[in-house]
Design brief:
The protein is of the alpha/beta class and 146 residues long. It has six helices and six strands.
């Protein structure tokens, strides 16, 4: 069993629900992550709504949500204020230090490195539910390094 939950980059509610259904069936915790920089162009409102709708659709799933805000401090601050559980910020170190303090006060984790390993579901944007679920099932059943 891997030491950290597998990370899935989701681009839609359908992606998030497929991941959570398969994770729940496999008894695995997962991370639902946004696409790189999504905190800038899609915003925390969209991502938070996707995560909450997915949670409502698959309440038995164990997961955390991670919004990538790139190097945009304003987007990272908005994500923290919106209550996103974890935020990626790759901007200046001094700004990251301050954002880390603010995030901790609000119960949010701030990561300062891009995700090194994740399964991006972007290529399956228009896939049907069964295709999405089969792909997620294969990833969750794959090598422990995932």
């Amino acid at each position: 069993m891997p030491s950290h939950p597998p990370v899935f980059i989701v681009h839609s509610l359908a992606h998030a629900v497929a991941v959570l259904r398969e994770a729940a069936a496999a008894g695995r915790a997962v991370v639902l992550a946004s696409a790189p920089g999504a905190g800038i162009y899609a915003g925390p409102g969209w991502f938070g709504a996707v995560a909450e709708a997915a949670r409502a659709a698959v309440p038995e799933a164990e997961f955390s949500a991670l919004l990538d805000c790139g190097d945009d401090a304003g987007a990272a601050m908005a994500a923290i204020r919106a209550g996103i559980g974890a935020v990626v910020f790759t901007g200046r170190t001094d700004v990251a230090e301050r954002l880390t303090e603010i995030a901790a006060e609000r119960g949010c984790r701030l990561l300062t490195d891009p995700l090194p390993e994740a399964t991006d579901l972007g290529a399956l944007f228009f896939a049907d539910e069964e295709t999405l679920r089969r792909h997620c099932r294969e990833i969750l059943a794959g090598p422990a390094s995932r």
